[in-house]
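Thread amino acids onto this structure.
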C-alpha cells in the first residue's frame, strides 16, 4: 500500500504539471494573418523612386483611406518627399456626399487649400490646364466590382489624359469587395458603350481597379505610362468582409458592404419603374412599387432556390425627395445575402425582374433614355446590351443566362494576363 500511495502521488504530480500547459494550448495556435495592406499603405511605407520629389495630382474621394482609416489626402500633405498639388473629384464629390447625378463644381478644398478639379461636370477627364503643375497623376478609390460604377470610367478617361500629357498614371490598388474569382455576364457590346460602361467587360468582372487599369491600358489600347502599386497580402478568393480592413460606404446609396455585394445586379433596377431602394434605409438591397404583389414575388423567388440569398416580402417608406415613389410607403422585396461565396447578384436580379415582369405584365415598365445619353434606354446602357430587355420581354431568360455564362468564361480567359493576385 505505501508503494501504491507513492505511485499515485507521482501520477497526481505529473498531471498537475501537465494541466497548466494543456490549458494554455489554444494560445499556441497559429495567429490570424495580418490584414492586407492597401496599395496606399505600400506606396507611403516604401515610396517608389519614380515618385520621390514629384508633384502629385490625386483622383480620390472619402474612400481613399489607409488600413488605419486615415485619409490619403492628409497623409500625403504632410510628406516631405512628395508634394500634393491638386485634387480631382468625380461623381458624389470629394467627400462622397453629393446626390447621384449631380454635377460637381471645381473648388478649393477647405481643409488643405488645394484646388479641387471636377471630373463630373462640364468635363469627365482632366484637361491640360488641370494637369499643368502635375508630374504624376494618382488614382486611389475603393471600387465595388461592377462595370456601371462610374469610378472606373473616370479612371479610364484620366489614363487617356495622362497619356496625352506625357505623365505617369498610378493606381494605388484596393481589394475587389466581392472577391476576385466569380465573373458574371453579360459583357458590354460596343454599340452600348457609355459613361456607365466604356469597354467590353462583364457586369461583374471580378478584378481590382489596378487589374482593370492594366486590361484597359493594354487590351483596349490606352497606352498610358501605367504604374500599379498592388495590395499586399490579398488573395482573389477573399471578400472584403474577411480582410479585417476598414470599410466605408462608397457613395450615398452604397452605405453598407451588403449593398456592394448586391449592386452588380440590383443596379439594373434603375432601368425600370421599380424602386431600387433610393430614399430608404436599404438602397440597392430592396425593391418595390405600389402595384407589386410582394408576397407572390417572394414565394416564387424562394421556390427558385437561388444560391446564397433569401428573399423577404417587406414594406418600406420612401423619403419625399426620392425620384421614384417619394413620400409613399410601398410593398417590396428585400434581398438578404446568406452566403457571399455562392451568391450570384446578376443572375438573382435578372430572375427577379423576370418574375416581376411575368406577374405584373401591365404594370412593370422599362424607363426611357437618360438625359446624358439619350440614344440608349437606361436598361440597355446599364446592361451594356439590349439582350436583357428583350429576353425578359420575350420570356427567354434561361437562354440569356446560358449565354451570360459562356461570355463570363471567355472573359476569365481574356483577363488572365492582367491579373495581379492569385
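Threaded sequence (422 positions):
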Amino acid at each position: 500500500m505505501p508503494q501504491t500511495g507513492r505511485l499515485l502521488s507521482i501520477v497526481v504530480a505529473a498531471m498537475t504539471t501537465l494541466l497548466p500547459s494543456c490549458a494554455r494550448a489554444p494560445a499556441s495556435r497559429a495567429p490570424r494573418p495580418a490584414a492586407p495592406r492597401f496599395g496606399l499603405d505600400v506606396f507611403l511605407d516604401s515610396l517608389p523612386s519614380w515618385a520621390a520629389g514629384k508633384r502629385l495630382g490625386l483622383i480620390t474621394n472619402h474612400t481613399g483611406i489607409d488600413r488605419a482609416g486615415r485619409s490619403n489626402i492628409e497623409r500625403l500633405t504632410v510628406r516631405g518627399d512628395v508634394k500634393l498639388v491638386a485634387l480631382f473629384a468625380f461623381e458624389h464629390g470629394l467627400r462622397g456626399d453629393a446626390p447621384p447625378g449631380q454635377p460637381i463644381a471645381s473648388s478649393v478644398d477647405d481643409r488643405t487649400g488645394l484646388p479641387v478639379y471636377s471630373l463630373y461636370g462640364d468635363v469627365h477627364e482632366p484637361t491640360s490646364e488641370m494637369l499643368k503643375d502635375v508630374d504624376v497623376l494618382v488614382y486611389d478609390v475603393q471600387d465595388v466590382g461592377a462595370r456601371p460604377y462610374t469610378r472606373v470610367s473616370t479612371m479610364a478617361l484620366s489614363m487617356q489624359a495622362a497619356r496625352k500629357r506625357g505623365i505617369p498614371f498610378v493606381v494605388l490598388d484596393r481589394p475587389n469587395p466581392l472577391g476576385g474569382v466569380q465573373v458574371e455576364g453579360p459583357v458590354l457590346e460596343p454599340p452600348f458603350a457609355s459613361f456607365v460602361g466604356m469597354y467590353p467587360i462583364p457586369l461583374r468582372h471580378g478584378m481590382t481597379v489596378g487589374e482593370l487599369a492594366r486590361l484597359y491600358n493594354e487590351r483596349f489600347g490606352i497606352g498610358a505610362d501605367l504604374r500599379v502599386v498592388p495590395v499586399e497580402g490579398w488573395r482573389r478568393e477573399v471578400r472584403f468582409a474577411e480582410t479585417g480592413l476598414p470599410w466605408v460606404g462608397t457613395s450615398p446609396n452604397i452605405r453598407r458592404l451588403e449593398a456592394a455585394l448586391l449592386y452588380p445586379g440590383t443596379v439594373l433596377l434603375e432601368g425600370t419603374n421599380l424602386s431600387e431602394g433610393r430614399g430608404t434605409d436599404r438602397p440597392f438591397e430592396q425593391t418595390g412599387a405600389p402595384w407589386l404583389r410582394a408576397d407572390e414575388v417572394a414565394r416564387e423567388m424562394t421556390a427558385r432556390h437561388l444560391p446564397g440569398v433569401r428573399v423577404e416580402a417587406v414594406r418600406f417608406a420612401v423619403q419625399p425627395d426620392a425620384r421614384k415613389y417619394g413620400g409613399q410607403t410601398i410593398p417590396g422585396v428585400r434581398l438578404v445575402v446568406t452566403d457571399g461565396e455562392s451568391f450570384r447578384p446578376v443572375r438573382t436580379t435578372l430572375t427577379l425582374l423576370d418574375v416581376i415582369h411575368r406577374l405584373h405584365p401591365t404594370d412593370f415598365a422599362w424607363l426611357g433614355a437618360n438625359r446624358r445619353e439619350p440614344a440608349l434606354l437606361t436598361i440597355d446602357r446599364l446592361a451594356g446590351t439590349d439582350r436583357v430587355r428583350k429576353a425578359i420581354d420575350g420570356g427567354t431568360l434561361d437562354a440569356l443566362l446560358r449565354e451570360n455564362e459562356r461570355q463570363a468564361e471567355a472573359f476569365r480567359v481574356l483577363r488572365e494576363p492582367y491579373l495581379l493576385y492569385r
